[in-house]
Structure formats: C-alpha cells, structure tokens
Records
---
Amino acid sequence: MNLKSFLRFTVYHSEKTLQRLRFPSQPADLPILLGISFPKSGTHLLDQILLGFSNVAPYARRLHSFYAEYEGESGRKRSPQQALDWLDSLRPRDIASAHLFARAEAVERVCSPRFLPYFIFRDPRDVVVSHVFYVTDMEPHHVHHAYYKSLPDFEARLKVSILGRPDAGIEFPNIAERFAPYLGWLDQPEVLTMHFEDLIQDRVRALNRLLDHFLTRVPLQTPRSLILESLESSINPAKSPTFRAGRTGEWKKYFTETHKKIFKDVGGDLLIRLGYEKDNNW
C-alpha cells in the first residue's frame, strides 16, 4: 500500500469510527449500501443521495470505493473474479458504487443480507448522447477519446456510441449489448431499480421510494421528513465531474432520422424492456 492509499485508508476508517460514536444506538453490522449503475446514467447522483444517509445513521461519509467492469484508459475488461473480490472487500456500513454486471455469482452476493442494493439506469438514447460528450470533451484519457476526436462531427460520433466499435480490437459493442449484462438486476426483488428520469422529474416520489427501501433493513427513529431533507440536501451537481445538463429527453435534439433508425435496429427492444417506449413507433 503506497502512502496515498494508506492515508486514504486511515482517514476513511477514522471517519467510520467517529460515525459509530455519533450513532451509538445503531447496530454496528448495518448492511453495505451499494449503488449499481449503467454508465452515464446518474452514477454520481445516486452516490450523493446514498451518502446522505450518513447524516442520520452510522454510515461512512464518503464512498469506500468505485468499481467498473472496464478500465477507462485501456478499455480492458476486468475478470469476474475481480468483481467478486471487490464485493468481498466491502464491510458493514460502507457505501460503495459500481458499474457491475449481474453475473450469477455477483447477484448471489449482492442479494444477500450483507448488502442493501440500488440500481439506476437512464433512457439509453440519452446515454449515448452523454457518452459522446464524455468521451470527446471530458475525459482525454479515455480509450476511445482519440478515435472520437478524429471523427468529423457529432453525428458521426453518436453513430459510434449507438453501434459500438466491433473492429476496434477492444470490447465496445452496441448500446443494447452493452446494457445486456445489467438486465439481471431488474429481476431481483432485493434490488431497488430506479429510472434516472424519476430523480429529475419527480424527485420527491423517487426519494421516498429510495428511503422506503432503506427502511426495510435499517429502522430509524429520525422523523421521515428530516431523512428526506438530508437526502435532498446531499445532491450537488457541481461536485459531479461528469454531470453535464441533468435534463431528460435531450436525445431528441441530437438524433437524426438515421440515428433513430439504427437505434431501433439495435436497441428498440431494450427501450421497451426498460419501459421507455411501448413499441418502435417513436
């Protein structure tokens, strides 16, 4: 462990100890709060909300860690065992965040009493638009950054974000195939599934659902209104390095008829599965 990691480890566990002292009546073995997200779907927003529970319960005041199935700079896919090792490294009262595939072994761990899991996703059409901005303008070290910059315009980049790069030599499939490994989370009753759009358009209802899920495992004496206020006040888009607009339905500004056609070809069924459309007549 290098010095930076050691200092972070020390600060983190010192803060957890102080949190335990703040809430002595709460059990020490509270479940791990795990925010699972599909990339570009409100990861930081969910993280901030879950961290709001640290104001009313002895949870960590910062994320324990973040896990992604792919390394951003190299595009290398991590092994299933790495995901399991990461899950096993978490401890009670941690709050953690992950782009985590719903493989059978991961589902078994996450849906156990050790975890209190949430899964957030977003309209995949807005995801691909957000992906273009992120790779092109916000993350110069991203494995696809140079390629996206080499393309002539936004329309060309958006087409790649929809169709993927099957001949790139690194794994980057189309949007439906990218989402497929996450679909299993939708079928787990232990996991609260959330549309990103609900947190933007109907935040009160969404936060109440999120809180109800929490209270099934962590009973609190704090008045409900104060807990909700804590969750709401924890949201700070300025602290999200990738939060660009926080609006929904922005894809309509960027999709041409060509983009609509290719998206329907590869991802029309996904939109229906996620509840964003009833058919392909959009």
Note: The radius of gyration is 19 Å.
---
Amino acid sequence: MLEILKAVLWGIVEGITEWLPISSTGHMILLDELIQLDVTDSFREMFLVVIQLGAILAVLLLYFQRLNPFSSGKTTRQKKETMTLWYKVVIGVIPAAVLGFLFDDWLDQHLYNYITVAVTLILYGVLFIIAENRNRNRRAVYDTLNALSYKTAFLIGMFQVLSLIPGTSRSGATILGAILLGTSRSVAAEFSFFLSIPVMFGASALKLVKFGFSFTGMEIAILLTGMAVAFVVSIGAIRFLLSYVKQNDFKVFGWYRIVLGLLVIIYFIAAA
C-alpha cells in the first residue's frame, strides 16, 4: 500500500512538471532522492519514462476533436488543416526521434546526473528570462498553428533535441525555441503539446521493449497508478498553462528553474 501512495505522489509531480517548462526530470531526480520507490533499478528507469503516457493521454483527451482529421463535424477544409497540422508535428518530431533512438543509452549513462540537471535548469531559466525580455515589444510572426510554416516546425523540432539532455525540459526547449522563432506564447505551448504525442509514445515503447513485459503484480499496480494520477493532474496543468500564457510571460518559470537548479546543487553537496 505504501508503494501505491508513493506512485500517487510521483503521478502528481509528473502531471504538473511535464507540461510546465520547469523540467520533469529535475523534479523526478529530487523526488527519487527524497521518496524512493521500493523497486528494481530497471523498473525505476522504465517507470520514469512510461509514466508519461498518462500525461500524454490528457493531451489526446483535451484536443481529440482538434487533432482528429476524420471528425464528421469538420468541413473538408478543416480536415485538410488538421492533416496539415499532423504533417508539421511529424516534421518537428524527426530530429529528436532519430537522435533519441541513436543515443538513448549513452545519454542515460553519461548525462543522467544531478550536475547536468542543475546546470540545464539554471541555463534555460536564464534563457527564458532573456528571451522574454527580448520579445517584450515584438509582435508574433505566427499567432495561429495554421500560420506556422513547415520550416519553422522543423526548427522547433531541432530545439526539442536539446530536451534529450536531462533537466532541459521538453516543453521548455520547444516553447523557448518557438518563441525565439516568432510564435505567440499560446502557439508555442500548444505545438509543444502536440510534438509530445509521438515523442512520448516512442520513448515509452522503447523503454518497455528494453525492460521486457515481465511485470510483477505490484509493479503493474505502481505503473498504472502513476499513469492514472499523471493523466488527471495533467488535465489541470495544461488548462492552467494555456490560461496563464494569455495574460503572462514565461519569466516566472525561468526564475523558478534557477532557484530549483541551485537547490539541486545545494542538496547534493550537503548530502555528499
């Protein structure tokens, strides 16, 4: 029962941090230090990735109508626009999908540590503040997803490659990149959500295959609990972010990242 309660907490943290540009990995590393799941190392490694499936299902639920190109409620033009959006998502996913597949094991072995996480938390926190200051009086070039060009979609995907480095934050990298490329904050956030769909499904599938499908009853319960909680919490987090960016910039998340990065450094130095 205790492990199930821990899985609930992990699901809450995942559901919040996956969508806000504050690095779910950074929070997960800290959480793992404070509240460890009593599981094998191989299951823990898989769990930290596959729990994201719960979060991604929230995107599919909230945007099902918008992302469904076969909806009977859409006109022919709207169906074409939906397919075009999916083409842009596929183009945007290619860089991270290719490099993630090739270097997944190397990244886990060499960069999954608190130093990397702390540095990237602070670095991208600073970059968020700089980017928002730079764009303060600029008008967005792309204020709708339909206006987003294929070239820009691919370039945003190149920024997503940066999220392969732990602590960067997938949503943080894509949102920051999209803003620098001229999108509005709402377009940056939504396109980041959509890019996450194939990326998270692919990453989860890769981890499941590597782990194998030989689960104990407790492992299944932990995994499903974490995913279910992440799903519910993600719905609230996504709605909050979309509402927040209508009236506010991302600088508060930049400052939060800087503070968290410093706390990560202080914690691990004190624990050494």
Note: The chain is about 75% helix and 0% strand.
---
Amino acid sequence: MTLTQLNAFVLVARLGSVRAAASALGVSEPAVSQALTALRNYLGDSLITRGPAGMTLTPGGSRLLATASQIVVLGAEAHAAVRAAQGAPEQLRVVATSAFAEFMVGPLIEAFTRRFGASIEVSTGVAASGEHAVLVANRLADVAFGPGGAGENSMPVETEPIFKYRLVVVAAGHSRMRGPAKQWRWLVDPSGTDPGSATARLLARLGIPEDNIGVLPSQTAAWAAAADGTGVAPAIEHLVSQQLRRGELSLVEMPGLPAEECWYATFLERDYRSSAAGALRRFLGTPDAMQVMRSPAAGVPPSRFKPPVYVTIWS
C-alpha cells in the first residue's frame, strides 16, 4: 500500500470519478485506475462500486476514507517539511475556474508576490468548482478561486467571498436579438460546462438546449465571436466595459440581468495554512487586490515588474 494509491482512492471517492481524480493529479485515467486496483488487491476489498446512481463506497471503503485522507495530508506536510529544511522556496499552489484563471490569477499573484517579500514558488491550474474544496483539503492546492460552494463538513476548509461582480449577456454592437433566448447561439468559455459556474447556472435557468451552446477556448474568444455577430455571450460586466464603450459589443436586455454574482476563495482552516497561503488570504482584503480584480488588464509599470513567480500550468 503506497501514498500514491491512497491519494488516488481519496480523490476518486471525493470527486466521484476516475476522470476527475486523474485531472486533479495531472495523470492519465489508466494510472489512477491501476493505483486503485492495486489498493483493492492489497486490502481485499473493492472499496468503491459503480451503480446507476454513480460511485458508492463499500463499508470498508467508508472506513478507509477518513484514515486515508489523514495519511495523504501527513504525506503533503512531510514533503513541505523536507523542502523547508532544504531551504527551498515555499510553495503556493493555486487553482481556479477557467474565467477567474483567464483574467485574475496572473495579476493577483504578481501583485501579491511584490508585497509578500519572501521566496515563493507558485503553480497555477484550472479546476471545476466542485473540485475546489477537495483539492484544498487534500493539499493539492493551497487556495482555490471560483463561485464558491461548501465542501463536506469533515473537510478543514474555509470559503470566503472576495469580490462581487455583475453577469450580463453581450452581442455585436447595435444588434437586436430576435426570437426567444432558447433559439439564439450561445457562446461560452469552458466554465459554461461547469455546473457550479454563474454561466452554467444562467444557461440552465434559461433552458438553453445543448445544441445551441458553443464552447470556445476562453471568455475573450467568446466575446470576440459575439462581436463578430456569431451569437451572444455571457460576460462579466466590468471586464467588457471598454468593448461596450467602443460599440464593439452591446448589452442584451433580459429579465433577471444584470445578475449579481460573487467570486470566492477557499483556503485550509487557519491552523493548517502555510504562511504564504495565510498572507495571500490577508492580501485579498486589501485595496490593491480589489483594484486588480476591478481592472486586471491594467497591468503594472515596467519599472515595477519583477517576475518572482515560477508558474507551472496543470489541470
């Protein structure tokens, strides 16, 4: 029985699928399946069964989950302790939903590291909102940004609101949409496939059929396609304000819009956070952080830009 096998089991049990666990670990699905099979053979228990309602823990799997979670956490803490003893930079692992990652993570982390003052190694990744609490609780991430959503009560995590924004729908400048919204072509970034995102909830509320939804690589690409007259796109109002002023895009008036939404940050509980994660949590309440989230494209003057962040993209 190995730490890798236990880690795979915990993530499959918490996230509900081998695919989600493989994505969180940054490995292939066969690798997760092989680790889970080896653990089952060693313990003589199937641990997880698949039925019509999805994956279910066996009695043995239910008992193992709590212990395995503790072992995984201890393994992460042991790794951090050895890195500290070697004088390695402190790690800060950040995950976010696709929209937050596209616009906010880079400017926020750059502004934070300017103030933190200590050596820090940052890695960033994209994860669905439903995975955030699990990734943080199992030490695969130090902070997760997205639409919120509490984890299980047994998870030592805290989720706090950090920034309110307004969700709108945009189309090509001066265009007038005809017919019901269900018949329009809807252009979304990958967050449109995340059931917990504001975009997915809007599409569900409007009853948009899947055939009328097009998923583009990013929100920027979705807005550009909307500006070309291809369809309509959900948008964060303050991030498209310049396109609206220039007339490249126009607001589509719809009942319930603009909708008030909020971004959240999920951290470990205070007693378990690293010093970098604790400092980031405090930074998020500062005027500097608020300004970055209000205007992330503003950047920083070249004379103040010092890249102390080593970024590894994983998902």
Note: Residues 89 and 118 are 8 Å apart (CA to CA).
---
Amino acid sequence: MPFRDTQMHLRDILQSIDRIEEFLGGMSLADYVNDFKTQSAIERQMQIITEAAIRLGDDAESICPGLDWKGIRGMGNILRHEYRRVDDRIVWNTVKTELPPLRVAVNRALI
C-alpha cells in the first residue's frame, strides 16, 4: 500500500472523527476532564488525524482548502512528543471547533 494514498488518508480522518464523536457521546467538558479513558481514546484518534494530515503533505491545502493544516500537524507533534504539555481543554476545544469543518472539507474532497 502506498504511503501517500490520498483517499485512504482522507477516509482515516473521517473514521477518527466518527470515533471521537462516538467516544464523547453527550459528555461535557467536565466529564471529559475527569475521564482518563476517554481522554486517551480521543488523543489516539487525534494522533491518527494528525498523522494522516502529515501524510497528505503539501497537497492537503489544495485538497481541502482553508483549514489550518499546520495547526493540525502541530497538535500531533504535541500529542506524540510533548505529551506532558497536553491540555485537556485545548483538545476539547479542537474537537468541538476544528473537527466539524474538517469533516465537511474531507467529505467534499471524497465526492
């Protein structure tokens, strides 16, 4: 399987967004902050999203314009390499504000 299979990486992003939504269900921020298992699951899915973004490379902007691809990749670096700096509130806000437009853009690219 090629490393740079655009369709596969886009599908991986969507699958991770779906899983994040499933894991969070109707949770509030307070629920999330107090649930280590859910935090771990969300962070893992965010790692997959950020790795897929890295693998899309410079093409990401032309495939799904207008998204903060640099920020998405940067979050992955923090999750992987600076895990002690992970702020639950930043992860929560990213999931709630950044993933919906990412979903829309990726769905549009897959059509």
Note: The chain has a mean pLDDT of 94.
